[in-house]
Amino acid sequence: MRLSVALKTWPDGRGWRDALLLLLIWLVIALLVGSVTRFFRWEWSDSSARKLASFAAIAVAVPCLAEELCFRVLLLPLPSEVPSNAAWWGYAGVALALFVLWHPLNGRLLKVSARSIFFDPAFLLLAAVMGLICTLAYRQTGSVWPAVAIHWLTLMVWKVGLGGRVIAIGT
Question: Among candidates 171, 9, 160, which has minimal Cα distance to 106?
Fold first, then answer.
């Protein structure tokens, strides 16, 4: 049921405005953390426009939609399903921890070419903060789409202008 509700719910103007505010907060935090830790490198990708477009199209589904469905929608009850805020945030804390831990596991088992990135403490801190921002967007709207948009925009900005390599999704 949660999956269906999260996929079918389209946020209203207020929901998108709230998501945009969360995105701006995330942008400030990410730029500060990425700059201080030197995780970000201010450089444009040398990938072709075709490779970037292909990556962008695939990335909407994997990892963005897939991870948001798994770590937000499937692991978090709808706010109406939990008797208290504290209980909801308990679920959110577990989901966020699993989201962060997923990245090193993914680097070890599946995406071996990204292992050094997925084990980098700066990356894991950025993943935790982005996960929290996506969690807030999901909670505020009951829709997966603002979290997917935030996740996708984050990934694309990193890949295109902040030193993230554009690699094939399956490698």
Answer: 171
pLDDT at 80 over 90: no
pLDDT of residue 171: 39
CA distance 136 to 26: 11
Distance, CA of 42 to CA of 126 (rounded, Å): 17
Alpha carbon distance 24, 158 (integer Å): 15
Overall number of domains in the chain: 1
170 vs 100, higher pLDDT:
100
Residue 45 has pLDDT above 80, yes or no: yes
Joined together, the tokens standing for residue 3 give 């999956």
Closest CA to 10 of 131, 149, 130: 149
Q: How far is CA 67 from the centre of its chain?
A: 7
In this prediction the pTM is: 0.94
Q: Which amino acid is residue 57, in one-letter code?
A: A
Give the C-alpha separation, 59 to 38, whole Å: 24
3-state DSSP assignment of residue 143: coil
Residue 48 belongs to a domain: yes
d(CA 112, CA 71): 21
Residue 11 lies in a domain: yes
Count CA atoms within 13 Å of residue 73 on its CB side: 24
The yes-or-no verdict on residue 56 having pLDDT over 70 is yes
